[in-house]
Amino acid sequence: MRIVIAEDDALLREGLALLLRAEGLDVVATTDAPAPFLDAVEEHKPDIAIIDVRMPPTHTDEGIVAAVEARRRRPGLAVLVLSAYVEQAFATELLAHGSARLGYLLKERVGRVEEFLTALHRVAGGGTAIDPEVIGQLLARTRPDSTLDRLSPREIDVLALMAEGLGNTAIAEKLFVTEGAVQKHIRRIFAKLDLPPDDRADRRVTAVLRYLDLGR
After folding, report:
1. Any idea which UniProt keywords this protein has (predicted)?
2. Which residue among 131, 165, 194 closes a domain?
3. In which order are the strands placed within the sheet that holds 26-31?
4. What is the pLDDT of residues 142-164, one digit of tens each?
């Protein structure tokens, strides 16, 4: 797996590179700003890019903008975004461009090496990985009269795990229920969120985006 890292904190950047190389992964470039990151993506054609949300010069949304641009230039590029805080607007902005091969993790997750590597491989393999803490904080911010009131506690659990990028089998294992039960919950979620079958959109992605958007 070929990886480009964009992180302006030198200690975290080099620490990530050492960690990934120790796992036998090929870190082909490390950068500290959006412009050299985009150059590295074009030059090295990585399988996945790891990028910080807040980067120079303004330390606001440069990382998100660079991630979206990198995927525009190189369709199908897997991107794992790191953030020090829960920044819901940035998470939904990134996912709005399509959720396949995308991840959004808090930086503290890097210290939990096994979880971080699992998320990295999931995103590189075509999946989605949203940090459980991001999901939990967004849920806590949800308005009392939000659409989530339509969902049962178990349906919220299922939707949260969908947002993390888990498939039906993994959700069933997490919740200690059958895969058939998970499928029933998902059908009810789609119905309660007014998501009829639509060939033009992936209802799982739409449901997750609706869920993440509730914190606004």
Report:
1. DNA-binding, Phosphoprotein, Transcription, Transcription regulation
2. 131
3. 26-31, 2-6, 48-52, 78-83, 102-106, 128-130
4. 544 466 678 888 998 898 888 77
